[in-house]
Amino acid sequence: MKKNQTIIEATPSGLAFEARPGGRLGGDRHGAAGAALGGMPDEVVDEAGEDVDQSAVNEWRAFVIPAELHGQRLDRALATLVPEFSRSYLQQLVDEGAVRLNGQPASRNAQKVTVGQAGEVELRATPQSQAFVPEPMDLVVVHEDPNLLVIDKPAGLVVHPAPGHWSGTLLNGLLARDPRAALLPRAGIVHRLDKDTSGLMVVARDRTTMDALVRLIAAREVSRQYLALAHRHWQGPAQREVEAPIGRDPSNRLRMTVVDLTRASGKAASTLFDCLGDGGRPAGESTGQASGGRPGERTEAGCLVRATLRTGRTHQIRVHMAHLGHPLVGDALYGGAPAAGMVRQALHAYRLAFIHPVTGTPMVFASAPPPDLASALTAWGLGGEV
Fold this sequence. Notes:
Blueprint: E1 6-10, E2 59-64, H1 74-81, H2 87-95, E3 99-101, E4 104-105, E5 118-123, E6 141-144, E7 148-153, H3 170-177, E8 198-204, H4 207-218, E9 223-231, E10 239-243, E11 246-248, E12 256-258, E13 270-279, E14 302-309, H5 316-323, E15 347-355, E16 362-367, H6 371-379
Parallel strand pairs: 1-16, 8-15
Antiparallel strand pairs: 2-5, 3-4, 3-5, 6-7, 7-8, 9-14, 9-15, 10-13, 11-12, 13-14, 15-16
């Protein structure tokens, strides 16, 4: 161990309104953290509880149609009169009866407005605008100092609020744990893990540290290593470096894919893979029935791989492993399937290392595989490889 090196082993265990894509939150009262919601889709959904009078916190804004908007569609006029909100959001308000003209609910977005017409619009809070609220939760904190935290995230925990997950995220838990998090963009989160990926994350506790961590990650000075259990025995040399750009899959917007940058948009992506061992389940073992195979034949063949990120693109390891012909166990989005008891993608961020941006101390953190992955490794004879 190097002098002064820290090694830690972890065991598993206000009102704002809708955000215009790519822009700010209108009426945001959540400080800098609100900036993280830029680009979220527009939604108008009432999620208030039975004891909350949502109308009491909504804003009514009056307007008068000027001469230059005479004859325009109502939704177009509203987009001009209330420019901090997107047109799609305002269209939803019209559909929900939240826009009045001359005291009567507006009937259609396409109806024409006339000069001098008086109206008002009820600007309702949306789920994304209320996402930045503290929610107490049990977080596994493997390191804490005045400048940063290191969290061991369980599989199933969403990192940022997003459509379908406006609450119960790591960000909500961080806001509840430390009031200072509300002063930081994304509550201090500087990198993310997919919902079903487990493992280590570093989180800043002040803006100076956050900016420094972002620079370290951009300069590839934060080492992030993952354990991945994948289908099929490893092909090729034990160590393979994949340099393959990643972009959105045009046939499925939920997926990313390897792209040719001369023909499609994307970003350079680099991952170093080291095969730690091949494994599998003998024929017939999973069902208890004879399969007709030779004794000891492996019909659920797989491999355990260590992945070291050189860049940090969305779904990078999952995309690159599928590109190599080794989709992750349990990763249905990229061609994987449940096996060895794993029903989520078999990916765990097990090692995190960086130089502390304030103290200059080398920091190294390690996290043991969580129970589901540990059990899968044992089932495939790979438990001793970690």
